[in-house]
């Protein structure tokens, strides 16, 4: 049997296997085309099978880098904080802390790779970054009892990163946190706590942190931002979500509050502490496992979640915000 026939036989088997489980997720209906459909991205790469999908196929965009044209990293090398001399104090990083182990992922590297398949504190994670949406989300890549490894598809949905799992080839939307086409369509990934902050701030809070090494094995100019000249609405905002409800907190409004902001979603109470110097928003909750949060550009978050409330600071709320606590 040829390699192509083996590949599509495998896809058919996976399609049957996940027909029931893929309906779990956002509640969006999984649509199945009458005939098999594919989206090709790249001349010498396998196409993406999109017969099953939860978003309109016409809204999936190609024409950028081909499949794996942006190389995802898998269990890369790290260096101690004191060795991270190539980083400026103001450089942005995505920071994670699991089982007492801290890691920092410089945005300067993520701009060129977008995904890091990693293990921190004995826990498998997927670090994702979409430069066009300014969104960094860390996921649990375990589906069932299997760790899934992800690559960059080169496709976009609503200008947002679509990555794909190498086990089934299904494309996943970063901001929807779920597979949008393929055999896994409708299946959700669980977002994990992460902090979008400066290298100076992360290193101060976690002096024993390791930082992703610039020695990735790829020839890239990590001093340059390949997206710097693009006309993007770079207004950062914090998205907080719980049980199907969401609220967007623009950094500009959190800065105006000048105090911790206390809110509720789906009956879950939480506090946002905003540090203006490093532009860092931290979330504290009584039920952290039931609330997820991450940072992205405000307009992109609103585009994906048009029903989400947008927080506006009102002076009348300041006194109650200062006095409330968890």
Provide keyphrases for this structure.
single chain; about 325 residues; alpha+beta; 2 domains; five-stranded antiparallel β-sheet; five-stranded mixed β-sheet; 6 helices; 28 strands; disordered C terminus
Q: Largest sheet, if any? A: 5 strands, antiparallel
Oligomer: single chain
Rg value? 20 Å
Total beta strand runs: 28
Q: How many H/I helices?
A: 6
**Domains (count):** 2
Average pLDDT for all residues: 89
The helical percent reads: 10-25%
Strand order of the largest sheet: 5-15-16-17-18
Distance, first to last CA: 62 Å
- How large is the share of residues in beta strands? 35-45%
- Global morphology: globular
Could you please describe the fold and organization of this structure?
The relative contact order is 0.15. Mean pLDDT is 89; it is low at 10-26 and 322-326. This protein is globular. It is 16% helix and 37% strand. It is of the alpha+beta class. The chain has six helices and 28 strands. The chain has two domains: 1-227, no CATH class; 233-326, no CATH class. The strands form eight sheets. A five-stranded antiparallel sheet has the order 5-15-16-17-18, with no helix packed on it. A five-stranded mixed sheet has the order 6-10-11-12-19. A five-stranded mixed sheet has the order 7-21-9-8-20. The longest helix has 15 residues, at 3-17.
């Amino acid at each position: 049997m040829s390699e192509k026939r083996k590949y599509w036989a495998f896809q058919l088997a996976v399609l049957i296997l996940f027909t029931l489980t893929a309906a779990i997720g956002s509640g969006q209906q999984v649509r199945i085309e009458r005939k098999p459909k594919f989206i090709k991205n790249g001349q010498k790469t396998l196409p993406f099978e999109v017969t099953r999908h939860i978003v309109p196929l016409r809204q999936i965009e190609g024409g950028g880098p081909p499949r794996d044209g942006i190389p995802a990293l898998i269990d890369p090398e790290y260096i101690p904080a004191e060795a991270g001399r190539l980083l400026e104090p103001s450089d942005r990083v995505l920071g994670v802390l699991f089982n007492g182990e801290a890691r920092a992922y410089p945005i300067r590297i993520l701009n060129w790779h977008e995904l890091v398949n990693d293990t921190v504190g004995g826990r498998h994670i997927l670090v994702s970054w979409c430069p066009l949406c300014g969104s960094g989300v860390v996921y649990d890549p375990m589906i069932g009892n299997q760790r899934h490894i992800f690559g960059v598809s080169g496709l976009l949905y609503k200008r947002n990163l679509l990555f794909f799992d190498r086990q089934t080839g299904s494309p996943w939307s970063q901001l929807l946190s779920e597979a949008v086409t393929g055999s896994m369509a409708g299946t959700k990934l669980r977002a994990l706590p992460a902090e979008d902050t400066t290298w100076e701030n992360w290193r101060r809070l976690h002096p024993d942190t390791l930082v992703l090494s610039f020695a990735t094995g790829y020839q890239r100019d990590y001093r340059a931002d390949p997206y710097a000249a693009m006309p993007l609405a770079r207004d950062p905002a914090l998205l907080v979500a719980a049980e199907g409800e969401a609220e967007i907190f623009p950094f500009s409004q959190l800065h105006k509050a000048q105090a911790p902001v206390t809110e509720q979603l789906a009956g879950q109470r939480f506090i946002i502490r905003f540090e203006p110097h490093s532009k860092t928003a931290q979330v504290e909750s009584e039920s952290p496992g039931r609330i997820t949060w991450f940072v992205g550009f405000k307009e992109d978050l609103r585009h994906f979640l048009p029903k989400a409330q947008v927080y506006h600071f009102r002076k009348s709320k300041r006194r109650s915000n200062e006095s409330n606590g968890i």
